[in-house]
Design brief:
- It is a single chain.
- The chain is of the alpha/beta class.
- The protein folds into two domains: about 270 residues, Aldehyde Dehydrogenase, Chain A, domain 1 (3-Layer(aba) Sandwich), CATH 3.40.605; about 180 residues, Aldehyde Dehydrogenase, Chain A, domain 2, CATH 3.40.309.
- It has 16 helices and 22 strands.
- The strands form six sheets. Strands 14-15-16-13-12-18-19 form a seven-stranded mixed sheet, sandwiched between helices. A six-stranded mixed sheet has the order 9-8-7-10-11-21, sandwiched between helices. Strands 5-6-22 form a three-stranded antiparallel sheet.
- Helix 7 links the parallel strand 8 and strand 9.
- Helix 10 crosses helix 11.
- The longest helix has 18 residues.
- Pfam families: Aldedh.
- Keywords: NAD, Oxidoreductase.
- This is methylmalonate-semialdehyde dehydrogenase (CoA acylating).
- One of its GO terms (molecular function) is methylmalonate-semialdehyde dehydrogenase (acylating, NAD) activity.
- InterPro entries: Ald_DH/histidinol_DH (IPR016161), Ald_DH_C (IPR016163), Ald_DH_CS_CYS (IPR016160), Ald_DH_N (IPR016162), Aldehyde_DH_dom (IPR015590), MeMal-semiAld_DH (IPR010061).
């Protein structure tokens, strides 16, 4: 029988008492590689209580010591980089290169967390009134929690707990039940980095365990990444319980191609941006909008995507891996069929994809639709698979209007040789993250991940300065120390005038 994934409570890995288990499968073979428990109510409450108790000491730990934990942690993550990527590839199906990218982007956030002393600096103004000074401190909240998705089991947990803990909070991680082995290794290495016992806890499960975190009064803030319906649910329930919530949700990311762009650059970038990671990422380009004569490039784009094929994680020739589950594959295939039924032109059809040696894998080949319109479900819904919709408009303003009318606002990009066109696009587009001749504009950790509209519910975003603000409170002090209160004596060196 496959091994049971353990909980991490009070600084110890422990077996759950739960009898409810969820199988963890290899998406390329359907082999059950682990069993993940749905933590009991007592276990979840124990983790929260322990985190609350540890917070009282951790918040008093000097910020330089907290930074050193993050320095040691990033060194260990780099040392074990390929090992973590191998674990990740085995449970997600990602290619090895893609898995390494997942780990590395998380490491970059840990490096950012190591700069926490400067990030926590407050502000000071002397003499806001005569003899009165005002200054501010940045202080931690308490117990924070994170609920992370299957598609980035290294990067997204590392978006959350390192910065939250560096700010002086304690943290409870509830990773995806579909790939818990990678987060488990992250927790093991965090312990090795010298983090005090109980600063980080990890529980497993599904909706019931999430609800326990959302409802418990001692959880002060909660971070989430996942689908739109779940993101809305998390945000509503969390804020109803008076918690601070940041919920990152779905997307429908557009790439606008101007006729003056470099054709080959456009095609090369769109291939990776649309089907990389099997399209299972919220920053994937799922809609290419061709302006004017650029529409003549659509057949060449389709031909390039037709040459791409998925494969197992260690296949160096594979462009991407399988979808995470049979259910995910079934949903994507239904969306492809619906696109055909709605009248879209299927230029490349990956519905019957076969990978030699892996007959049971959740494979879907690259799929390209032409003549897509805004009333089609393949346009309105996030497919979350290796499917690219292409659309045609006459002008740049038409393209801007099309993108702005979409309810999502995670990321977008424009390919053009015109600085004027690029500036107009970046200025007028109602999307949080914009790429110019860059296909997937995910910012580095010293900025923040800034999705808009239905791609994000909350006020403060992940990593960067906004995350520090999310995981902290500002205390402002106004002080007066009248000189008349000075007591004269042999130890006083101030001479009053």
């Amino acid at each position: 029988m496959a091994k049971q994934v353990q909980l991490y409570i009070g600084g110890e890995f422990v077996d759950s008492a739960s009898e409810q288990m969820i199988p963890v499968t290899n998406p390329a073979t359907q082999e059950v590689i682990a069993q993940v428990p749905c933590a009991t109510e007592q276990e979840v409450h124990q983790a929260i209580a322990n985190a609350k108790a540890v917070f009282q000491d951790w918040k008093e730990t000097p910020v330089s010591e907290r930074a050193r934990v993050m320095m040691r942690y990033q060194a260990l993550l780099k040392e074990h980089h390929d090992e973590i990527a191998t674990i990740l590839a085995g449970e997600t199906g990602k290619t090895f290169d893609d898995a390494k990218g997942d780990v590395w982007r998380g490491i970059e956030v840990v490096e950012h967390a190591a700069n926490i002393p400067s990030l926590l600096m407050g502000e000071t103004v002397e003499n806001v009134a005569r003899g009165i000074d005002t200054y501010s401190y940045t202080q931690p909240l308490g117990v924070c929690a994170g609920i992370t998705p299957f598609n980035f089991p290294a990067m997204i947990p590392l978006w959350m707990f390192p910065l939250a803990i560096a700010c002086g909070n304690t943290f409870i991680l509830k990773p995806s039940e579909q790939d818990p082995l990678t987060p488990t290794r992250l927790v093991e290495l965090f312990e090795q980095a010298g983090a005090p016992k109980g600063v980080l806890q990890m529980i497993h499960g599904g909706k019931d365990q999430v609800d326990m975190l959302l409802d418990h009064p001692d959880v002060r803030a909660l971070s989430f990444v996942g689908s739109v319906p779940v993101g809305q649910y998390i945000y509503r329930r969390g804020t109803e319980n008076m918690k601070r919530v940041q919920a990152f949700a779905g997307a429908k990311n557009h790439c606008v191609i101007m006729p003056d762009a470099n054709k080959q650059q456009v095609i090369n970038n769109l291939v990776g941006a649309s089907v990389g990671a099997a399209g299972q990422r919220c920053m994937a380009i799922s809609c290419a909008v061709f302006v004017g004569k650029a529409k003549e490039w659509i057949p060449d784009l389709a031909a390039a995507l037709a040459k791409v094929h998925p494969g197992a994680w260690d296949d160096k020739d594979a462009a991407y891996g399988p979808l995470i589950s049979p259910q995910a594959k079934e949903r994507v295939l239904k969306m492809i069929q619906q696109g055909k039924d709605e009248g879209a032109e299927c230029l490349v059809d990956g519905s019957n994809c076969v990978v030699e040696g892996f007959p049971d894998g959740n494979w879907v080949g690259p799929t390209v639709f032409g003549k897509v319109t805004t009333d089609m479900q393949i346009y309105q819904q996030e497919i979350f698979g290796p499917v690219l919709c292409t659309m045609e408009v006459e002008t740049l303003p038409d393209a801007i209007a099309l993108v702005n009318a979409n309810p999502y606002g995670n990321g977008t990009s424009i390919f053009t040789a015109s600085g004027a066109a690029a500036r107009k696009y970046q200025h007028e587009i109602e999307v949080g993250q914009v790429g110019i001749n860059v296909p997937i504009p995910v910012p580095l950790p010293f900025f923040s991940f800034t999705g808009w509209k239905n791609s994000f519910f909350g006020d403060l975003h992940a990593y960067g300065k906004q995350a520090v603000r999310f995981y902290s409170e500002t205390k402002t002090i106004t002080a007066r120390w009248p000189e008349t209160d000075l007591v004269s004596g042999p130890n006083m060196t101030i001479e009053l005038k």
